[in-house]
Amino acid sequence: HANLLNTYTQERRGAILDTLAELTKTTLFITTPSAGIALVREAVLSLSLSENFLNNLFDPYASAPYEYTDSALNTLAPEENRFDKRCRPGAIAPDAIVGPDGQRLYDQLGYVFTVLSFVEQAGAAGARALADGLKSAPIPVKVVELAVDTDAARLFDAQAGTVYLLRPDNRVAARWRQGSARAIIEALDHATQGSNLLLETH
Fold this sequence. Notes:
Strand order of the largest sheet: 2-1-3-4
Radius of gyration: 21 Å
Order of helices and strands: HHEHEHEEH
Largest sheet: 4 strands, mixed
């Protein structure tokens, strides 16, 4: 589907430009093309022996993942401004403890679109109605219920009724304070640019 392929270019172009910017900073730090930069590097290296806050400068994994916040595949609900900026559409969903025995969210996700439904208690009527409504979605959607008293609810700024739609790459496609099956199906269609039948979900 041409529209969906075009969004890949848009998303990955932003990501590669971000990566190149990080690589440029690293290269300047290592090669020090001027006396001024060399002086700064020596100062940073000296301070790093006693100041822990500088340690991340030498950790290649310290940079936050690039967020597709300007992706054409995102759906911004009217209540988006009522959420924290964390976990906004385009961001990678964080892993979190979701059960009393240390079960983690990522263990419940798969290579399919996933709905996170935050509830007061398992089997809540609203969550069941949501799952039933999604049976008419054009592609299979996995529904994961999460209690509002878990670490996940804090990370996702969630309360009872909050719903997130995650893409197969675990990025947030949309979120609602009070989600509905209809809104999710519309966001799903938008995230796939109407090419639902071309997606294989096993």
